[in-house]
């Protein structure tokens, strides 16, 4: 009798485990972002509320550069990630290479309502950041550099400079320094951009490779002005460093959400995608970090106060001062060629 | 006998032969046989520049580590046991600190507002901060620091094997200390010199974090090419080709060195 009971209990337990197993398997996704303060902010603002509203579990992973991992995972035929928050260009390129699922926007009403320029067949803008001209207020207490023309002007603005060791946004800055209007950049005149970069190259102390490095360079006074991401500069400023930046001629960039081809939880992933760009969740993000919402409707929710909105890169007035990056151009053959040319530019 | 060594052989097969074979395979196979990846490595001059720079830096690091390491090992060898243990612990201690932390520490020391520049300015030796980091100089300094133990330990091991009475014999025959050093001690310590140098040189060839953080973007070593190939060309084949060429050059170095010295004696226990 006792044994029978035990057997029965065991069966129930096994059944329960089986059931919960099935339930979680059906309603969970693995979401990947870039880690750090940024991922913490979106967890509070977007991920946790979305998980609660949809009744799903969101497992998180983080990696600074998801692209090689996406290639390996999808290439192996058994991806373990579902949704990735990654620079928009990778979503487009990945889509063309069959690594990213094509989206059915009828299932993603929140994204379908967004401006055409903010989405692609494979992706939806998730948040905006900007590559801005940042400078030390110690070196430039007044008459600070205010445009890429000023950045290139080493006589009027003496000081050490840093740029990102990457062609994206750097070529745009070079062209603006050469007098191209922010809305006339694309298709990029690559030859002209590299020629302009040769001009400033001897005056570049550091070509930085990570956002953390750019922040450290400015904070430690290793450079007097640099191209940096707005959130990195404001984070350093909040900690008391005398640094500032201008949105003038900034290059407005975005990361997007996209879904890996053959993702294990495709249906849940699509549901999540829609929820993640919901205007209210989106409006919550800038309350935790200095990045702008990917869905412009967020500015209409009254969650973001006007004085806060004024600090954000995608706020309409700030966006108007900047160049909107064309990820379509960068993932075109011309864009890829420009990216490959960068390596030889750096080593000459 | 085979039964005894077969687990070891299996581990070697699984952890070394298979991955390296896979790497080599990827570099020549991408939707069919291709030499495109190697064509790129051998024809584009950025690869030549990187390989040349990597070998230059590795040679410089090896030479500096030898100059700094030899006296340390000599001291540890000639002092009484207690002192030599202290010296060796000081050499090994940095081993337990992450390479990343040590790279950042050098940044804090060498940068424009770093300790060294501020001290020199305080002493009025310089008026403008020196460019000590974000260039090849900073990379070499930090790399030497990280690799120094790999020089000192083989040197110390080789010196330990030199019988002390040989020096006494030299002295008793009327040779000055410097002469006994040059004619007896130095030649006998050469296996250690070679072992340490080979170790440091080969390890340096594959350095990544240090030049990435302290090179300022211009010191592009081969390992950085590998990572950039993955990012840039989005294909592992191109990266694998670079890795294979580096691996083959290391093997070539070992081969050349082995023509002159018995490497098994240098790197082994005998």
From TrEMBL, chain B:
Q: Which Pfam families does the entry mention?
A: BPD_transp_1
Principal location class: membrane
Q: Which Gene3D superfamilies match?
A: MetI-like (1.10.3720.10)
One GO cellular component term of this record is: plasma membrane
Q: Does the keyword Transmembrane helix feature in the UniProt annotation? A: yes
BP GO terms, sorted: transmembrane transport
Q: Does the keyword Lipid metabolism apply?
A: no
| Location of the ABC transmembrane type-1 domain | 51-257
User: CDD domains per the record?
Assistant: TM_PBP2
Q: Where are the transmembrane segments?
A: 50-73, 85-107, 137-158, 184-209, 236-262
| Membrane topology field | Multi-pass membrane protein
Compartments it resides in: Cell membrane
Top-level lineage group: Bacteria
Family that this chain belongs to: Belongs to the binding-protein-dependent transport system permease family. CysTW subfamily.
**Name this polypeptide is given:** ABC transporter permease
């Amino acid at each position: 009798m006792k044994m029978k009971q035990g057997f029965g209990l065991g069966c129930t337990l096994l059944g329960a485990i089986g059931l919960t197993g099935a339930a979680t398997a059906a309603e969970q996704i693995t979401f990947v972002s870039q880690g750090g303060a940024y991922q913490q902010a979106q967890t509070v603002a977007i991920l946790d509320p979305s998980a609660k509203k949809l009744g799903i579990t969101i497992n998180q992973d983080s990696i600074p550069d998801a692209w090689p991992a996406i290639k390996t995972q999808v290439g192996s035929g058994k991806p373990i990630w579902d949704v990735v928050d990654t620079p928009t260009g990778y979503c487009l390129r990945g889509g063309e290479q069959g690594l990213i699922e094509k989206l059915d926007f009828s299932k993603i009403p929140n994204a379908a309502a967004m401006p055409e320029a903010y989405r692609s067949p494979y992706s939806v803008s998730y948040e905006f950041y900007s590559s801005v001209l940042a400078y030390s207020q110690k070196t430039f207490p007044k008459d600070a550099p205010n445009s890429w023309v000023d950045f290139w002007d080493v006589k009027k603005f003496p000081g050490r400079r840093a740029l990102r060791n990457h062609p994206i946004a750097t070529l745009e800055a070079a062209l603006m320094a050469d007098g191209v209007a922010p809305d006339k950049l694309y298709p990029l005149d690559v030859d002209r951009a590299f020629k302009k970069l040769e001009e400033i190259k001897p005056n570049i102390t550091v070509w930085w490779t990570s956002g953390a490095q750019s922040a450290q360079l400015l904070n430690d006074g290793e450079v007097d002005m640099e191209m940096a991401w707005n959130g990195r500069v404001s984070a350093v400023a909040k900690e008391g460093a005398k640094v500032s930046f201008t949105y003038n001629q900034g290059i407005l960039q975005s990361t997007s959400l996209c879904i890996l081809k053959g993702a294990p939880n495709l249906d849940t992933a699509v549901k999540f995608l829609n929820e993640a760009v919901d205007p209210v969740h989106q409006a919550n993000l800038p309350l935790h970090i200095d990045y702008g919402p990917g869905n412009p409707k967020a500015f209409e929710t009254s969650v973001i106060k006007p004085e806060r909105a004024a600090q954000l890169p995608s706020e309409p007035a700030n966006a108007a001062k900047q160049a909107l990056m064309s990820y379509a151009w960068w993932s075109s053959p011309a864009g890829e060629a420009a990216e490959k040319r960068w390596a030889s530019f750096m080593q000459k | 006998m085979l039964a005894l060594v077969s687990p070891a052989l299996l581990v070697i097969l699984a952890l070394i032969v298979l991955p390296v074979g896979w790497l080599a395979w990827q570099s020549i196979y991408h939707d069919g046989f291709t030499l495109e990846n190697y064509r790129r490595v051998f024809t584009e001059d950025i690869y030549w520049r990187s390989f040349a720079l990597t070998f230059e830096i590795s040679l410089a690091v090896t030479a500096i580590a030898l100059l700094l390491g030899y006296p340390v090992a000599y001291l540890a060898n000639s002092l009484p046991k207690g002192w030599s243990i202290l010296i060796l612990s000081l050499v090994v201690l940095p081993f337990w600190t992450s390479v990343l932390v040590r790279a950042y520490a050098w940044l804090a020391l060498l940068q424009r507002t770093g300790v060294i520049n501020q001290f020199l300015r305080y002493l009025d030796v310089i008026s403008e901060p020196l460019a000590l980091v974000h260039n090849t100089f900073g990379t070499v300094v930090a790399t030497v620091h990280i690799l120094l133990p790999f020089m000192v330990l083989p040197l110390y091991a080789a010196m330990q094997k030199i019988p002390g009475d040989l020096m006494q014999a030299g002295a008793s025959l009327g040779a000055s200390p410097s002469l006994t050093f040059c004619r007896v001690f130095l030649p006998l310590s050469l296996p250690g010199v070679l072992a340490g140098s080979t170790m440091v040189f080969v390890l340096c060839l594959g350095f990544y974090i240090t030049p990435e953080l302290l090179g300022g973007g211009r010191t592009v070593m081969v390992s950085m090419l590998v990572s950039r190939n993955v990012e840039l060309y989005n294909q592992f084949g191109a990266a694998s080709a670079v890795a294979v060429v580096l691996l083959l050059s290391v093997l070539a170095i070992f081969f050349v060195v082995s023509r002159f010295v018995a490497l098994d004696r240098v790197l082994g226990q005998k």
